[in-house]
Amino acid sequence: MTLLISVFEQGLIYAIMALGMYITYKILDFPDMTVDGSFPLGAALSAVLISNGVNPYLTLVISFGAGLIAGTITGFIHVKLKVRDILASIIMMTALYSVNLRIAGRANLPIYNFDNIYSNGFTNKIFVGALAPFENVIVIAAIVIVVKLVLDWYLKTKSGYLLKAVGDNESIVTSMGIDKGKVKILGLAIANGMVALSGSMFAQQQRFFDASMGVGTAVIGLASVIIGTALFGQISVFTFSISVILGSILYKGCVAAAIRLGLQSTDLKLVTAVLFLLILVISMRIEKHQGKKRITS
Amino acid sequence: MIELKHIHKFYNAGSVNEMCLFEDFSLTIADGEFVSIVGSNGSGKTSLLNIICGSIEVDGGQILVGGEDITRKKDYLRHRNIGRVYQDPSKGTCANMTILENMALADNKGKPYNLGMSVKKNRIDYYKELLQPLNLGLEDKLYTKVGALSGGQRQAVALLMATMTPIEMLILDEHTAALDPKTAEIIMGLTGKIVKEKHLTTMMVTHNLRYAVEYGDRLLMMHQGNAVMDKAGAEKQALTVDDIMGVFNEISVECGN
To answer: pTM of the entire structure?
Structure first.
């Protein structure tokens, strides 16, 4: 039971990160490795701020803002300095590793003894008795729902349409009299803002920041997006956001199951990578079969 | 008025493959003029359009539109007054968006792309009105992804998108070349109608000599970066496909092909 709850908690937290990666990978067609740095960026900021007595909910907003900046810089490196997309993001990812250490002051920063967004005077009063074990997952689910609704809404706005258009066909954005570079930067900013928000939630759930926390974030995010869109995206009642969220939970479940079946927790990243490879290969097979069907649906 | 003054353009400058495309090329196009441009491959037709749209930079000379020097103006800023349709139907539309979404996107050109809803329900009827005269049945396919349409249908949508907001110039780069003859007719007819209704200054590159004769009030033939033939007014109206073909053959013989 605890394992199941923990799968849902982490799956949902990572879902926000995966939704961010959906923007870069699926909408912008931009392989963004920045996330390996912006995820722990949110974690480091939150750990430091919380241990200094800042309201945990405020750290969510601050982390989102920091992620926005990180994504903007990646976008700037790519668009203005004309560095290839994946290289620009790897440069930023590497730089952020040191930035995160600077922010946290050390490689590992525990926040066990502080209030966080899940457990504080307010939530402890509401979630009592039978609800108590579900405190975390309820708070997480509420945030995920808000993020999902805001993202769904945003992608229906004029600004959101530009974002979709720039990944689809750059020249149409130019035709509309809009600087396509700025649209890409905006997309990267929003995506990394979401990733850092997810990192903040993760640090508070784990109750510590660790410098290596971000390793493999991109792989987890991509796996969630691909598994979600390949498996659930075919079902028309599921919007992309629900598909990605389900994909994230399923992926976490698979990893947890693999660990449970006798692998050690040090094998986590290996499991993460191998599972991703499996999903990638399988989803390509699925797409081959259904490729034509998808565009007409 | 579009003025090109002493344009110079080289490709692969400084290398052994250096190729001079335009050398001191000048051209003036009056407001409201519909210019058809013909010429062999590599003659500079498409480059001419790209230079005006800012898709490629010039190595020398000036480009003026309505008296304003736009030589160094960014391409996306120039496109605010330009509607452009490409040879490739996929370049003028977004494949993964529906017809409705595509038209809503284009409908907002010239206005800020802010956090307002892109698709406005009260505009849907207007989009249908635009699509209906095409007789392609597109008005019933508003919720179909553009990627699922045929090339001709996509090109029709692209043409409508390029011209649905107030623009001054229409740039057509072989926009019927990838279409079957019947669809090409429909698209060309629609083009003529739109240009007439909106009094757009139009430049149309085409390989179809009949279209070049039938449409437009001026005809240019490009060859090696020069306008070897430039007819307007009554002279243009009197031109036949055979006349153009004659000049075409003369040039080709000179080149040895």
So the answer is: 0.91
